[in-house]
């Protein structure tokens, strides 16, 4: 079993109104040190290995569903899942 950690973030050129709202709230709470906030998504997938490379499967899933590649970037890392 493989564990895949996927990070999806908005491209730098895309405005992030949710991030701006969080930054403004942090400033209102007197956290003036915060200069910028960008909101993203984090997903963990458990994938059973198949005849296709896991990296190919994850890339396909990201491009078809998990990320809007017009406005978002994604990156992922694959590791062996720890079973208990």
CATH topology category name: Mth169, Chain: A
Terminus-to-terminus distance: 12 Å
**Number of distinct beta strands:** 3
Percentage of residues in DSSP E strands: 25-35%
Unreliable stretches: none
What integer is the average pLDDT?
A: 96
Q: What is the class in the CATH system?
A: Alpha Beta
What gross morphology would you assign? elongated
| Computed structural class | alpha+beta
**Helix fraction by DSSP (H/I, runs of at least 4):** 25-40%
List the domain count as a whole number.
1
Q: By CATH's scheme, which homologous superfamily applies?
A: Phosphoribosylformylglycinamidine synthase subunit PurS
The helix tally amounts to 2
Biggest pleated sheet: 3 strands, antiparallel
CATH architecture: 2-Layer Sandwich
Which sequence of strands runs across the widest sheet? 2-1-3
What is the gyration radius calculated from CA atoms?
17 Å
H/E element order = EHEHE
Can you describe what's shown?
The protein has 84 residues and is α+β, with helices and mostly antiparallel strands. It has one domain: Mth169, Chain: A, CATH 3.30.1280.10. Helices cover 30% and strands 31% of the residues. The protein is built from two helices and three strands. The protein has helices at 17-28, 54-66; strands at 2-10, 40-47, 72-80. A three-stranded antiparallel β-sheet has the order 2-1-3, covered by helices on one side. It is elongated. The mean pLDDT is 96.
